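Re-run with default settings, no changes from the original entry. Doing this only to confirm the output is reproducible before filing.
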Amino acid sequence: MALEKLDDIYQRAAARKGGAAKLNILLGPGKQDHLLAAIPDDRFLSEFSKKVFQSGFVWRVVQNKWPNFEESFFNFNIEKVLMMPEEMMERKAADPKIIRNFNKVKTIKANAEMIFEQQQQGHSFAEFIAKWPSDDITGLWAYLKKHGQRLGGNTGPYALRALGKDTFLLSRDVEAYFRAHDIITGGIQTKSSLSAIQASFNSWQQQGDLSLGQLSRLIAYATGDNHVHLEEIADAE
């Protein structure tokens, strides 16, 4: 099946959301990658860690406890986290002030090591992320999955979006769109599926001026059984 034109997707989403003006508000701001390089690397470790703990858990509970995480892990200072011995990590993981999951606590140090490795290349991790090209965003996902811990699936992409890196998300509605149009047939995270999805987003970006984040929201709003409107702004993804 031929790839659907961006304008056709936009018109369908606009009809579902009460018109172009309302849809544009729902799509949110565009690309903000220029702000990324100034973000301290400890904020990347904090966000990666938060998304790891939120995966499969109640997000609100993690959010409420996050100040305790910041205190327990030295505000996610990379060097201080890397100096933490195993016994200290175990003690931290048993503290009721945070969420007691030692396997997830261990990812904090592992992902600090990933960030530190980039710092040794003469640039911050933030600069590394900021320079990664948007036409290969799935390549960045693969990097996080390979070099970090528990950053595969949607965990890494959600963290990137929270930090301001332009990325699409493979939500249920977005996945449903690609399957309905026979763009993918196998697993959503297979190399062939990710390549086909990336190529589709690259084509849509060339047809307009929407960011990857706006495009994935657009696909979600044009697909499936979501009913998000201005009076209840929340990402349909």
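Residues 52 and 148 are 11 Å apart (CA to CA). The two ends are 24 Å apart (CA to CA).
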